[in-house]
Amino acid sequence: xxxxxxxxxxxxxxxxxxxxxxxxxxxxxxxxxxxxxxxxxxxxxxxxxxxxxxxxxxxxxxxxxxxxxxxxxxxxxxxxxxxxxxxxxxxxxxxxxxxxxxxxxxxxxxxxxxxxxxxxxxxxxxxxxxxxxxxxxxxxxxxxxxxxxxxxxxxxxxxxxxxxxxxxxxxxxxxxxxxxxxxxxxxxxxxxxxxxxxxxxxxxxxxxxxxxxxxxxxxxxxxxxxxxxxxxxxxxxxxx
Length: 240
What we know:
By secondary structure, the protein is of the alpha+beta class. It folds into three domains: 53 residues, RNA-binding S4 domain (Structural Genomics Hypothetical 15.5 Kd Protein In mrcA-pckA Intergenic Region, Chain A, Roll), CATH 3.10.290; 74 residues, Pseudouridine synthase I, catalytic domain, N-terminal subdomain (Alpha-Beta Plaits); 81 residues, Alpha-Beta Plaits (2-Layer Sandwich), CATH 3.30.70.1560. It contains six helices and 17 strands. The strands form four sheets. Strands 7, 8, 9, 10, 13, 14, 15, 16 and 17 form a nine-stranded mixed beta sheet that branches. A four-stranded antiparallel beta sheet has the order 3-2-5-6. Helix 1 packs across helix 2. The two termini are 24 Å apart. The model has no long low-confidence stretch (mean pLDDT 90).
């Protein structure tokens, strides 16, 4: 027996958090009966239907994607804009992105149908490092970097300690290239952090996710994670 939201997530329908939303919204039936209780447990013999679709457990799959700029991190878009899944048309699994990257941000993104791992990787308590390289306006100073490392106030809450370093000043003296490593995932966090120290982001890319990087990939390309990489990702969260 396992919790209903976990069973839905493991079937590749949605992340565990979205599965919980489907349940509380009355969009899930177990053996023909609408279930709204998150603590409900189901077995392999139960029939679970989510938004009219009967779930079947899929093989868990994991992909590393080099997201280009100008692409939406979602499974669909009502405005007809290109989404990350448009690059996975040949993949038969019902995958979805782990977390998100802004429309104008490029870089490393994971996609999977493993709702349990998705839930852990996006939960702040597991503190998975994510490294960004930003081109920012103006010349970053040592006090600016210290402020980023110590944490800044955004949306009424101080950010956690981070790693920040100057990669190189811009050739024109009007910009800087900065590397910033954080483990939180607050909305537009990196951009807001640089805004606080007076250096708005002009260009942003996420280069590393935990121990994973973009080596060998160009924008728009992806690869399936190797078994040992999947195990290492799980270990990042299981040890917490």
